[in-house]
Each structure stands twice: as structure tokens, then as C-alpha cells.
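Journal club prep — side note

Before the paper discussion, L.F. wants everyone to see what a predicted structure for a comparable chain looks like in C-alpha cell form. Sequence:
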Amino acid sequence: MAKGLFDCTGKVTLVTGGNGGIGLGFAMGCAKMGGDIAIWARNAEKNAAAKAELLAAGAGRVETYIVDVGSEEAIIAGYEQLMEDFGRLDCVFANSGASPRYNSVFEMSTEHWHDFQSVALHGAFFTLREGARLMKARAEAGEPGGSLVACGSLSLFQGLAGKMEYAASKAGVAAVIRCLAAEMGEYNIRANIVAPGLIITPMMGDREGPAAKYLEGTYGPTTPLKRTGYPEDFEGIGAFLCSDASSFITGETITVDGGYMIRA
């Protein structure tokens, strides 16, 4: 049983897109601190592998669910099942999304724009709203507290040519988080954004593969810490934001970028 400043024992954390990459890194931090984990993702095989990893890392309990976060109805049903299984919700990491696809605004179809926002913006909003609803109900029953977290991006601060669908979704979710922080504070519910820099995830292939090596060689030298990020770099921030150690932090955007944004 985990003890100490970042103890997550008895806390239930939901991570959307939590069977790999940044989502699994965040979940792993909570698991190592003894927390219970719920994963929403659509690949059953990856869900099973993530569950085994999280349990081996020290999670009290792990359940995985096939939930399409592009559907409001699926999100509501997913929370009903989560509450039936765990009985409580303490932390949400709205992480599901997709990578940008185009290099110019003129290449981007209207259909792609709407499809992208259905998960990256609308799905994140519904996930956060319904999570906040459950936390508020718990607070009104006499147990305040909770942590709402969304995955942002450095596109919150920088323009990216051709990546409008991606940047717009991140900016929209960041605004939602700030509004939640303002509204939910009276229930001791916190809301924050984590903004990753360049993170090498399995979506980019093997860590030692050519794509990852190219990105590391291109962006690593221009980053103050002289490397790109990896999913394990989100373990600490996951444990921190889930635990009571972050109890007086809300409405913040926390960059996890190796210092990339402060370059001269």
C-alpha cells in the first residue's frame, strides 16, 4: 500500500485513451501510488495489456472498458458502469484524441474538421462534464474533492500551420477546464490542463525506430533538457494531480515539455 505525499490509495482515476502513450503514463503514476484505475479505450487487446502493467505497478484495482468517447451516450453509459464497479470517482484524465493530419488549412475537409472535434473537443467536454457531475454529487453528500485533468498541447501557445483542427480542440478544452475550475472550486474540485511537448509514443513506432530517432535528433538538441519526452514522463504529474498533494492547484496549464517553451 502506497504512503506519502503522492498517495493515491482509495482514489479512483479514469483515463480515456489510457491503454498506451501519454494516457498510460498518467495512469501508471496513479497506479504506482496505489490508486485504482479505470481505462476507456477501444482496443481490447491493448486494454488487457495495460491492465496487466498497471496491476504489476501497484494499482489496487484496474478495470478496462470499450467506450467511444465520440458519443455522449456512450460516455454517460460508461460512467454508469464505472460507478457500479468502483462506487466513486476521484480523478479524470480526458486524454483521448487524434494526431493532426494535414499541412495546410486548404487541404482539410469539412468532414474531417467535424469528425476530429467529435472526439478531441466534444468528447473531452462530455467526459469532463459527467465526471464533474459525479464529483459534485459526492461533495453534496459530504465528501468534497476531486481532480479534473485534460490533455492539452504546446499548440495552446504556438501556431501550427495546417494543424487547426488539433490546436482548436486543445484551446477549446483548455477553456472548458478554466471554466470548470471557476465553477467547481466551491466543491473542492480542481481542474487543470497538462500540456505535453514532443512525446515519443508507440503511435510513432518503436522507440529505437527511424521515426523516433529522427524526431529525437531534430527536436532533442533544441530542448533545454536535450531530449524529447516519453510516456513515463507523465507518471509524476499523474500521481501529483490525482493525489492531495495538488489540493491548492486549479485552473493551471502545466507544461511537460523539457523546457521547450522557454527557449531563447
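L.F.'s comment for the group: The CA atoms of residues 12 and 86 lie 7 Å apart. Keep this in mind when we get to the figures.
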